[in-house]
C-alpha cells in the first residue's frame, strides 16, 4: 500500500513440548539459523534469537501485513520437521502448543536484545515458568496458569 510506513517489533517466546530440555548446544546455532531463514524468507527482519534447552526467544521486526500466528505456526512446524529429519533427538521433537508475543517500541530494543543474549545467566536465577509468567503479568495479559504450561 502506498505511503504506509511501519516499524513493528515482536518478542516471541515458545517452549519445547512438555518443557523438555531437548535443544542441545551442539546443534542449537544451526536451529537458530534455520528459524532465522524462515523469518527472513517471509520478508521480516530477524533481530536476535537465543534460548535455553527448553525454550526459545525471538526478537523480530515485521511487515504491517503480518499474520503472527501463521508465521509462528510455520516456524514451529518447519523447525520441528527439520529437527526430526536430522534425527537430532530421540523420538519425536515437538513444540508446545501456543506462544507468547509481546510488542516493543524502538527504545526497548537494546534492553530486549541484551535480555535475549543473556538467557543462560538469567536462567541461573529464574526458571522459564517464572520468566514467562512475569512477562504475562508485566503485559497485563489475562491467563489461567493451568493452560499456560503443558507439564511433562
Task: Give me the secondary-structure topology.
Layout: E1 8-15, H1 28-41, E2 45-52, E3 55-62, H2 68-85, E4 100-104, H3 109-117, H4 119-122, H5 128-138, H6 145-148
Antiparallel strand pairs: 1-3, 1-4, 2-3
Helix pairs in contact: 1-2
What does this structure look like?
The chain is of the alpha+beta class and about 150 residues long. Helices cover about 40% and strands about 20% of the residues. A four-stranded antiparallel sheet has the order 2-3-1-4, with helices on both faces. A hairpin with a 2-residue loop joins strand 2 and strand 3. It is globular. The model has no long low-confidence stretch (mean pLDDT about 90).
Mean pLDDT: 92
Order of helices and strands: EHEEHEHHHH
Side by side, the strands of the main sheet go: 2-3-1-4
Instruction: Using the alpha-carbon principal axes, give the shape.
Output: globular
User: What's the oligomerization state?
Assistant: single chain
Strand content: 15-25%
Helix and strand content put the structural class at alpha+beta
Measured on Cα atoms, how large is the radius of gyration? 15 Å
Amino acid at each position: 500500500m502506498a505511503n504506509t510506513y511501519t516499524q513493528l517489533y515482536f518478542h516471541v517466546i515458545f517452549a519445547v513440548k512438555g518443557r523438555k530440555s531437548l535443544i542441545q548446544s551442539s546443534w542449537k546455532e544451526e536451529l537458530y539459523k534455520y528459524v532465522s531463514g524462515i523469518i527472513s524468507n517471509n520478508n521480516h527482519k530477524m533481530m536476535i534469537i537465543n534460548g535455553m534447552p527448553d525454550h526459545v526467544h525471538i526478537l523480530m521486526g515485521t511487515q504491517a501485513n503480518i499474520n503472527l500466528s501463521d508465521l509462528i505456526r510455520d516456524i514451529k512446524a518447519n523447525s520441528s520437521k527439520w529437527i526430526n529429519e536430522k534425527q537430532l533427538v530421540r523420538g519425536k521433537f515437538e513444540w508446545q502448543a501456543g506462544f507468547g508475543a509481546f510488542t516493543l517500541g524502538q527504545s526497548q530494543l537494546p534492553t530486549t536484545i541484551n535480555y535475549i543474549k543473556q538467557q543462560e545467566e538469567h536462567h541461573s536465577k529464574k526458571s522459564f515458568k517464572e520468566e514467562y509468567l512475569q512477562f504475562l503479568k508485566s503485559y497485563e495479559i489475562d491467563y489461567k496458569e493451568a493452560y499456560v504450561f503443558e507439564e511433562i
